[in-house]
Specification:
The chain is an alpha/beta fold. It contains 13 helices and 9 strands.
Length: 292
């Protein structure tokens, strides 16, 4: 291997700086040259050791999959989808990163990247077999075409998710504004998330569905029929309680997060164990009232 030729000076500098971080000592670093005016990273001498060769290939793989990948994502977003703003690009790339890191299992199923790492490493091994010069951009064009198709797919999925998240934020803000203009109809509400949602008043007496339906502000359902759930969000907004104690086994459940996002500091998340304590208090309180 003699040299890698890059199309841009910036790419040559990026790879050179990235590679130097992996080399174990200064002597090895002296064998790697950056020829800036020709955009070349050159390996001096006739041969390099197997260990240095392994390091170079590993650094090259990471340069492609970590450093350059985000550059390519930004280029796809800009040229294909007209996302020119850096901040918007960054938000979409963060969604892609969360998918690739396995944080969004619901979206990961749409990706077909099972053999991606193997394919890239195989292409790198092949190009480094001979002690020759090669063009980085030609390598990408002819060896990594499937990888670029995958990147396009990641961007498409992330853009759909980004648009949905934008719509969700608009929806939450709209309901926050509705809530700001309402007088509380009750001070404390207990909300139980189990197989279905159950409302309890301050004395922990269950509020029946018919009662909740009567309390719903009809403007909510008329103005926002698609977004407002008549079984949970609509009665909550109509009651506009000052404090909501929400009992759940799963604080990350989407509807729980939505209620938390709309009502913000009004909501206190509690466990089912805490619910038993409140339930016992309610029974004792009711018993003492009956005795009186």
């Amino acid at each position: 291997m003699a040299e890698i030729i890059f199309q841009s000076k910036l790419d040559a500098e990026k790879f050179y700086d990235h590679l130097l971080k992996y080399l174990p000592n200064n002597h090895d670093k002296e064998t790697i040259l950056l020829i800036e005016d020709r955009h070349i990273v050159k390996f001096s001498g006739n041969m390099i050791s197997l260990e240095i060769s392994r390091i170079v290939k590993h650094a090259f793989f990471e340069f492609i999959t970590n450093i350059k990948r985000d550059d390519w994502f930004r280029e796809i977003l800009k040229s294909h989808y007209f996302y020119d703003e850096f901040e918007e690009q960054q938000q979409i790339i963060e969604i892609i990163d969360s998918i690739l890191e396995g944080q969004r299992e619901d979206l990961s199923i749409f990706l077909n990247n099972a053999n991606e790492e193997t394919q890239i490493k195989s292409a790198i091994e092949h190009i480094f077999l001979d002690n020759i010069s090669f063009s980085f951009d030609s390598f990408l064009k002819f060896r990594l075409r499937p990888y670029f198709q995958s990147l396009q797919g990641y961007v498409e999925i992330a853009i759909d998710e980004y648009k949905m998240e934008q719509e969700y934020q608009i929806f939450v803000q709209m309901l926050r504004e509705f809530l700001m203009n309402r007088e509380p109809k009750m001070e404390v509400l207990h909300l139980l998330f189990d197989e279905e949602i159950t409302f309890y008043n301050e004395q922990f007496v269950e509020m029946k569905r018919a009662e909740l339906t009567r309390l719903i502000d009809r403007k909510l359902l008329v103005n926002h029929p698609v977004y407002v759930d008549s079984a949970s969000i609509a009665p909550l907004l109509s009651l506009a309680p000052t404090t909501i104690f929400l009992y759940t086994k799963d604080p990350d459940e989407p509807l729980v997060r939505t209620i938390k996002n709309i009502f913000e500091e009004r909501v206190t998340i509690k466990s089912f164990a805490a619910l038993r304590d409140v339930d016992k208090w309610a029974e004792d309180h009711q018993s003492s009232e009956n005795q009186a």
